[in-house]
Amino acid sequence: MREIVEDFRQRVSGNAQLEELWTSILSTTTSSVRARAVGANALALLTWSTAQDVRHLGRIVATLGGRAAAEAQERVLVAIDPKVGRPLTTALIRRLGDHAWGDAVFDDPEAKDAAVLRSTCAEAVIRLLMVPDGAAPEVPAIHTSGDLLAIFTHGDLPTWRHLIANNLRDPWSGDGGRRTRLLDSDLHRREQRVLEDALDLCRRFVEEDERRTVADHIRRTIARTGLTQREFASLLGTSPSRLSTYATGAVTPSATMLLRINRVAKRARAARDDDQPR
Prior knowledge:
Blueprint: H1 2-12, H2 16-28, H3 33-47, H4 51-64, H5 66-80, H6 87-101, H7 114-130, H8 145-154, H9 157-169, H10 175-181, H11 189-225, H12 229-236, H13 240-248, H14 255-275
């Protein structure tokens, strides 16, 4: 992470506007190297957006995780971005979007990792749009392809976040799929890919939350029995290592296994209560 900060410091020298923004970031973020690396990378992507800057972004995401990296970007950007319309963040999203879905080329056209760089940009855009900010923008009604294309052309961060929030509320049967079908796949392939990728990631995001919810339920259920995971696994008829994958969320149990976990826990609690002195 220190290398990301040092690389930015070397390039920013002499650019008064960038130096001012960097000073603002330093004054509003913690002294954490990670926080400063996120800030340096955000400004580098806004200003130069080279292949190496995107690789640095990928490193940040790999270190922090996609959601945490986006939340860190938001904390940095909100400190330097005017509240109305968030033009700096909007510009960053457009820049990354051009790399992800448009015709923009990286400074290193021979890079063998071009596909990875595009994927990094695409996920970073959508993850940043997923960060809730409490804003409630007036979003135009979307009935036609023209309505939708106008949001691509003239939209800003608050408007795009509103659309992503709608996806997150109902990613399988909500408006996301309907909006995608408004576009002609030949004329508006780029915009259609943006909507498809956004919907796919929203579905993955919700599925991740569901897996975490199931894992939390399993851990709480076992804890209420007063048994260790090894003892509970024995009653369940499975191995401790297998039960651990359920409790950590590494593996989501089948509906049948989840019912068995609940039944075994209920019997274990009843047996424990019967053993209590009266």
